Amino acid sequence: MKLRSVFNLVAKKASYAAGTAWTFLGAVSIVLIWALSGPVFKFNDTWQLVINTGTTIITFLMVFLIQHSQNADTAAIQIKLDELIRVTAEANNELLDLEELDEERLEEIRRTYEQMARDATKALDKVRSEKPNG
User: Fold this and answer.
1) Which of 11, 86, 99, 132 could form a disulfide with 68 if both were Cys (CB 3.0 to 4.6 A apart)?
2) Which residues contact 17 (CB under 8 A, 6 or more apart)?
3) Distance (Å, rounded) from C-alpha 49 to C-alpha 44?
4) Rounded distance, CA 85 to CA 80, Å?
5) pLDDT at position 97, please?
6) DSSP code of 43?
7) What tens digit of pLDDT does each residue of 32-70 get?
8) Positive/negative CA dihedral, 62, 64, 70, 73
9) What is the pTM of this model?
10) What would the DSSP string read from start to end of 91-129?
11) What 3-state class would DSSP assign to 39?
């Protein structure tokens, strides 16, 4: 099995596990045990170092798991949106590769769609104002 496949499998399982109520309760329990053990260790530097080190390591590793999951989710959503654009007869096919455009072109397209939204709002307001109340 390739390293990428192993990482993908481990990352998915770890991301799923990290998002469960049991994992959250476990983390809360660890923090409570740590806090309650403070008087036993006289709140010394080593006692503080234990929680600081543990949370730093976990946070560091979770950044990579979260980014991996985010990349996979973003790619899947992008493919789904591309397919919806592709099968829509009147769609602007330039949007299929939108994430690859430069900022200037993106801003131009955004302004176009904002204008379309304003025009649609005006048309809807006009229709609503012409309807009789009743």
Assistant:
1) 11
2) 23
3) 9
4) 9
5) 84
6) T
7) 999 999 999 999 999 999 999 999 999 999 999 999 989
8) negative
9) 0.63
10) --GGGGGGGGS-HHHHHHHHHHHHHHHHHHHHHHHHHHH
11) coil
Looking up tokens 């799923």 gives: 16
Per-residue model confidence as pLDDT tens digits over 73-127: 998 998 998 888 888 888 888 888 888 888 999 999 999 999 999 999 999 999 9
Two tokens, residue 86: 């592709």
Residue-level pLDDT at 64? 92
Q: Which two tokens stand for residue 35?
A: 């806090």
Measure the CA–CA gap between 98 and 51, rounded to whole angstroms. 44
Query: Please, what is the angle between helix 45-87 and helix 3-18, to 10°?
Result: 110
